[in-house]
């Protein structure tokens, strides 16, 4: 008889190996088609983009992180986890846990009134089955985006982050992401007036690995890359 737990673990290991190979393939592609990316990859090193397996928590984290600093978002996330643990005995944040808490406890953890309402709207739609996170990965990127933006507080950017960092989709170009845009401006020596169409034209050769190109833009923004090396 097949042990379901062992089968699940074996499947996960196989997926990890497959993803690792796909990341390496993506890096080879970017180095081949884009001279600037080739230089960035040389300074940054291998792509270490990781996925959050808990899809609901990924979306909750994205809502929490909106319009606040990384440090502040981390503090609020930790407080929400502690709140859930004290209420349910588990550190796992689930739709039922959040719905059981309500707005005020979430506000006491540092969430604004609006963000608390957004999180509860997400929890309600997932708990009711209106959004099926367990099977959402079967659909196309655009279908997933259309489904997620029905949630209050989730726009296209949040949905794109979900595609990249939860589902592991490799060909997402979040053109509205400030970090990606600033990374492109820096790495390609472009003017602030660069249009969305021009950003998309820069990213076009990255296809079908735009997510990885975007990841290198984030890392390149954080890395001291001599301008002479980009010429």
The number of helical segments is 12
Classified by CATH, the class of the largest domain is Mainly Alpha
> And the CATH topology of the largest domain?
Endonuclease III, domain 1
CA-based shape: elongated
Structural class assignment: mainly alpha
Low-confidence stretches: 1-14
Description:
With 231 residues, this protein is an all-alpha fold. The protein contains 12 helices and no strands. The protein has 2 domains: 25-49 and 173-230, Endonuclease Iii, domain 2 (Orthogonal Bundle), CATH 1.10.1670; 55-165, Hypothetical protein, domain 2 (Endonuclease III, domain 1, Orthogonal Bundle), CATH 1.10.340. The model is unreliable at 1-14 (pLDDT under 50).
In short:
This protein is an all-alpha fold. The protein has helices spanning 4-33, 35-44, 55-65, 70-88, 95-101, 103-108, 113-127, 141-148, 156-165, 178-187, 196-203, 210-222.
Secondary structure layout plus pairing:
Layout: H1 4-33, H2 35-44, H3 55-65, H4 70-88, H5 95-101, H6 103-108, H7 113-127, H8 141-148, H9 156-165, H10 178-187, H11 196-203, H12 210-222
Please describe the structure with a list of short key phrases separated by commas or semicolons.
Endonuclease Iii, domain 2, 231 residues, disordered N terminus, 2 domains, Endonuclease III, domain 1, mainly alpha
